[in-house]
Amino acid sequence: MSKIERAEVFVASPGRNFVTLRLTTSDGVTGLGDATLNGRELAVASYLRDHVVPLLVDRDPANIEDIWQYLYRGAYWRRGPVTMTAVAAVDTALWDIKGKVAGLPVYQLLGGRSRDGVLVYSHASGTDTASLLDDVARFRDLGYKAIRAQAAVPDAGASYGVRKGTVYEPAAHSLPDEQPWSTEAYLDFAPTYLEAVRDRFGFGFHLLHDVHHRLTPIEAARFGKRVEDCRLFWMEDPTPAENQEAFRLIRQHTTTPVAVGETLSSIWDVQHLITEQLIDYVRTTVVHAGGITHLRRIFDLAALYQVRTGSHGATDLSPVTLAAAVHVDTAVPNFGIQEYMPHVAETMEVFRSEVRFEDGMLHAGDEPGLGVEYDEKAAERFPYEPRYLPVARRLDGSVHDW
Ligand SMILES: [Mg+2]
């Protein structure tokens, strides 16, 4: 019997912080798992090093489901982003190993190919409507068939999703950046730039928008209704997701499709959203929702209720997660869309990946396993840097949802 012989946790910052788990079996097969939780990276690294690694050594790496159950139920303390990210890292690495042992790409182990490629959306942004329109044009020229549009709200500080320079990276060094927020200004302005995008470019591509948890349910209902003529692919995270019942109110008022779930970590966190058909797309990811094993369980539940997938895929997830996501997306019947931001060059010096972008889609490649390698020597050149995501404050100084 093959055994897990070694479990190593790497923390490095090639462009941004990533936590990576590498398992090595007694047969010399390695598997990679992403354990990155943006702004709380070391909590997951400690969870793995101090509490999980001692449980893995000498286990049979073939028993993915049993190891998942052992780590989830065996801890007694369940769910939550730190726990589920740690479990995900182990699970993802075990699928990578199983693929390599079988000589098959992971999507084959999940039932094989359901589609030729994985539709992705990119992030266009602007400091005003004119620069947003230029950015949308640029992404259309790059071949994207789906584009998320965000522009800075005038007089409301730094709005969500607006890039400064060539790279979007909200996590700041040292203490969190504090950014002012005005819901009133956003509700007045955001529909105008979404309409401007449709006026300029028409309806021949998918248009998405991320509200980023900043509205109350009735505000979100008003927003969704206001932009119905823009025919959005989705409005994302219209209201904080931990209150699943809030989405019923939004649903009663608008036909704009709703996507939610990037901060949610288990099937229990999306149960009512899915079974009561309060959303159209579930955005849970491999890395924050317990790995391929648990994400597949969420997606299968979603399929029963005509809810499609739309996994989070910003660059705060490592290329290991992106590859795992593309394998899952390739296989599941109810795939919707995959978020995609290309990683910076420093990241790709450390992670070599088979995932390829072509004509608006991602392709997983046919290497056995996930098709990603980790260069720990290259990673040594990029030590961990403490970073925090921003905090939003209303104009009266009180804390708002970022
Ligand atoms: Mg988002």
Automatic annotation (TrEMBL):
CDD domains: RspA. Coiled coil: none annotated. Pfam families: MR_MLE_C, MR_MLE_N. GO terms for biological process: amino acid catabolic process; carbohydrate catabolic process. GO terms for molecular function: magnesium ion binding; mannonate dehydratase activity. It comes from the Bacteria. PROSITE patterns: MR_MLE_1, MR_MLE_2. InterPro entries: D-mannonate_dehydratase-like, DgoD-like, Enolase-like_C_sf, Enolase-like_N, Enolase_C-like, Mandel_Rmase/mucon_lact_enz_CS, Mandelate_racemase_C, Mandelate_racemase_N_dom. Residues 130-257 form the Mandelate racemase/muconate lactonizing enzyme C-terminal domain. This is Bifunctional D-altronate/D-mannonate dehydratase. It comes from Streptomyces minutiscleroticus. The lineage of its organism: Bacteria, Bacillati, Actinomycetota, Actinomycetes, Kitasatosporales.
